[in-house]
Design goal:
single chain; mainly alpha; transmembrane helix; transmembrane; YggT family protein; membrane
């Protein structure tokens, strides 16, 4: 009888922990989506400022609404003077870092503090890789928007905006690549390079985490697509 009660207690604990893990996974997804939205808006704000693009359009107003609450207080302390707004870039990294630190804390609470404390050292690294990955996805999204609008709505304001954002990335490729039959191959090549960059970044992230956790880099492994 005592063994039965003990087994029932263990089963209840496992079920409770399983539900907690499910809730943590859902919460992590929602939190990461919010963090990526804010950080992505910060990155896009940096790009618009670097290209001297006005924020009077609907996209610019949306970016200001998403980021002003974070950027304006920071600019009261530090106001960057360079073309690239490094302060907003740092804030994007800080948002992602806060997400990873919070997730580590929640996992510690879930596992009753049994997780190794050195895993918290991975948070800055994971935030950096998240920022780089977000930047590559953002560049790829801008490129796809530019290509789609070039065919469908060349007179739309989003087309001119995406064209100005893509111009610094496409200009070097256009100088190197020939134009055949009036077709510009530079967006295709840039998209391929960005996709390769995402694969390389994923491999570097997995290798760095393996080095930090297991003490050895990731060797002989194939990074899956997607």
């Amino acid at each position: 009888m005592q063994i039965s009660f003990a087994l029932a207690g263990v089963g209840a604990q496992k079920a409770l922990r399983s539900r907690a893990m499910l809730l943590l996974t859902i919460f992590s997804f929602v939190l990461y989506s919010i963090a990526c939205t804010i950080a992505g808006a910060c990155l896009l704000r940096v790009l618009l400022q670097a290209q001297r693009i006005s924020f009077s359009n609907p996209l610019g107003q949306l970016l200001l609404a998403l980021t002003d609450w974070l950027v304006r207080p920071a600019r009261r302390v530090l106001r960057p003077q360079a073309r690239w707004d490094w302060l907003t870039l740092l804030l994007a990294y800080t948002v992602l870092l806060a997400h990873w630190l919070l997730m580590w804390l929640l996992q510690q609470l879930l596992w009753a503090g049994n997780l190794p404390l050195n895993l918290i050292a991975l948070a800055p690294l994971q935030a950096l890789f998240s920022l780089l990955r977000l930047g590559l996805y953002l560049a790829l999204g801008i490129l796809l928007l530019y290509v789609a609008l070039s065919w469908l709505l060349p007179g739309h304001w989003l087309h001119s905006l995406s064209e100005r954002l893509c111009a610094p990335w496409l200009a070097p490729l256009r100088r190197l690549l020939p134009t055949a039959g009036g077709i510009d191959f530079s967006p295709m090549v840039l998209g391929l390079l960005l996709s390769i960059g995402l694969l390389v970044l994923k491999w570097l992230e997995l290798s760095a985490i393996a080095q930090a956790v297991f003490g050895q880099p990731l060797l002989g492994s194939v990074v899956p697509f997607g």
